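FAQ: What does the model actually see?

It sees only this:
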Amino acid sequence: MKSEAPEEGPPEQTLIENRRRNLEQIRRIVGDPYPFRFPLTATVTQVSRAYRGRPGPELEREAIHVATAGRILARRTQGKAGFLDLSDGQERLQVYVRKDVVGDVLWELYGLLDLGDWIGASGDVFKTRTGELTIKAREIAFLAKCLRPLPEKWHGLKDVERRYRERFLDLTVNPESRAVFETRSAIIRYLRRFLDEREYIEVETPMMHAIPGGALARPFVTHHNALDLELYLRVAPELFLKRLVVGGMPRVYELNRNFRNEGVGWRWNPEFTMLEFYQAYASAADLMALTEEMLSGLVREVAGGAQTSWAEQAIDWTPPYRRVTMRQAILEAARQDPRGALAERDLESAQALLAAAGRFGVEKPERFAGQKGKLLAEIFEAIAEAGLVQPTFLHEFPTEISPLSKQDPSNPEWVDRFELYAGGMEIANGFSELNDPREQAARFQRQAQERAEGDLEAAPYDEDYVRALEYGLPPTAGEGLGVDRLTMLVTDRHSIRDVILFPLLKPRGPESGDGA
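And it is asked to produce this:
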């Protein structure tokens, strides 16, 4: 028996040339090696799941005929017979090819096949002596040529950079990658169904904005030629979704793409997916309860239980989730930090916060001199965020960093806002919406001043949104949930690039070649 061996072989270019020669021979045999269609009766996965549990003698008595297709991932030949392993990306199925059954022409075609080629096979389902489900081919059909050799099947595609750049190869040889994206799809289906069942309406809002708003983030800039108009890819759909609530749509949601012109890292990709939803007559507390119900149900359905793995830990999604204020989280984290604990008085003045920020390694804390809210948020991110592994609602946010949130009536320094953390990262942000147009205009003006002073993430003044508020926004709460980060948590993936099919990467350098 011979098979394609794992020993180091000829260089890739030689293999490509051999495959091209095989393609020309295949063309001579079949005519067009890229046909329009193949009369499929069942996928590889469907055949496997339908018959693998049935006894071999029963399959032979019934003489079940199928036509299936897939990519060749293994090939073994012995004399005038051979085996192919076909994959449809989910499961594998063995195909048994005999010269005396398929004839001389198709046997010659069989001899020209390479790993990675796409073929169709039709024949009867049976089981080998070892019990492996197999199709005894009566015919094989050539469907497409793989002109470049696949990564060696016994090593898989281990080059992480190449996995992201060439996701088609990653999906071909790493079944666990496909499983991640099937889980992501299941997560999105669940989120839609959860909100649809509660009478939310799914909507679509613009991707290009004349004014970037809805989040404190630096936007991408584009240009509309016909209108000679500078536009921005949206950083969030928030302001448009709230316009719909003004218009009498009390429950709306959008599964949306957002674009933020900021750094990349294990939690950040400039293009990412969010679920944003808004509910009239509700407060932030209502959405916290709804989020607990949504996520605990999602994990039960998608992951099969109340817990998911996160590195060496288990995250328990059973409600209720812990609630802690931003100041409490900082004080708790500082008690465990070797750089020294903090007292409540250290969080009361901008000067004390500036000193604490310097001690805990906040980068260039002097940028935020005099800005208590921003210093508080920077210190939280520096020392407390990573420790919030179990689902935790962080609440009581500074008004200074929450220009769209409703203030606490008892203390205007704080707003009715929360963020949900799990796995040491933020996965959701929600608040009671500011619906006083005069106050919103004042906050926009303060943000516009900060923008003029060089803060490129500050929100510009949005006159049209203020005008919409003047028609009346009822009491409303809204929330954004990060789909990419949620998928990371459910699948135990520690880079956002592992859960985005085509993450943004630097262009290949000239020295990287085809495989970099």
